[in-house]
Amino acid sequence: MGTGIRAVIFDLDGTLLNTLEDIAASMNAALAANGFQTHPADAYRLLIGRGMMNLARAALPEDAREPAVVQKAAAAMRREYEKRWADKTRPYDGIPELLEKLCGAGIKTAVLSNKPDDFTRKCVGKFFPQYRFDAVLGEQPWIPKKPDPAAAFEIARQLGFSPAFFACLGDSDIDMQTAAAAGMLPLGALWGFRSAEELNEHGAQRLLDTPLDLIKLIAV
After folding, report:
1. CB-side neighbour CA atoms (13 Å) of 54
2. Which CA distances in Å does 165 have to 17, 142, 156, 161, 182?
3. 3-state secondary structure 197-217
4. Distant-in-sequence, close-in-space partners of 143: CB < 8 Å, separation ≥ 6
5. 127 and 31 housed in the same domain
6. pLDDT score recorded for residue 218
7. Which of 84, 114, 130 is the last residue of a domain?
8. 74 shares its domain with 125
9. CA distance 134 to 157
10. How much is the average pLDDT of 191-217?
11. CA 37 – CA 55 distance, rounded (Å)
12. What range defines the domain where residue 73 resides?
């Protein structure tokens, strides 16, 4: 392995899974139920990634972002997402093949998401039933969300490697910032929700056009 990478931490939404339509439909249903304007699905590309509470806050009109309203919208989003989280969500092309190759090469893998932990685990179990990640960690109250590096450090502890042996693959500024703060290799996924410019501006060391480009990079 030319880079010395022994483990890869994957973001979930926009990296392993295309969750855009199910998240957009759920948040729009929550907004409509509370009398607020909905958004085109594509607009959610810029709203996803900071956790469900922040998603609800960003989706609400600026003059309606009082804590009680945000809390109500986030609770409604959770209920709506429970109904449809797997309707249109699918792994990106090349992801199953990538995971198989990493597993075969003895590379450790983990998922780190700002999606609530229960939904993170449901998504991983549903869409990758044949594959066992070495760690899966979604948003939980006991650990700060990305871009705070605490959760990345926790995964490194669980897997037993120094952060220097990790790559972090994600599609947003938050993922690149998390990797940099943790002393891990930040890799940008161009098939996800954000732009190459955003990834570069926030510290991506490499941009990958397809999931299988990761194999070439770490020379598995």
Report:
1. 12
2. 24, 25, 9, 6, 11
3. HHHHHCCCCEEECCCCHHHHH
4. 137, 150, 151, 154
5. no
6. 83
7. 84
8. no
9. 12
10. 97
11. 15
12. 20-84
Q: What is the pLDDT averaged over residues 168-177?
A: 98
pTM of the model: 0.96
Same domain, 55 and 156: no
Question: CA torsion sign, 10 to 13 to 19 to 22?
Answer: positive
Residue 53: inside a domain, yes or no? yes
Q: How far apart are CA 87 and CA 104, in angstroms?
A: 30
Q: Structure tokens of 72?
A: 């109500």
Separation CA 217–CA 208 (nearest Å): 9
Residues 138 and 63 in one domain: no
Same domain for 96 and 156? yes
- Among 84, 118, 133, the domain boundary falls at 84
Q: Give the H or E element holding residue 195.
A: none
For range 205-212, the mean pLDDT: 97
Both 172 and 118 in a single domain?
yes
Strands (E), 11-159: 17-18, 90-91, 108-116, 135-139
In whole angstroms, what is the distance from residue 109 CA to residue 126 CA? Answer: 17
Number of domains in the chain: 2
User: Per-residue pLDDT tens for 69-113?
Assistant: 999 999 999 999 999 999 999 999 999 999 999 999 999 999 999
pLDDT band at 1 (very low <50, low <70, confident <90, very high): very low
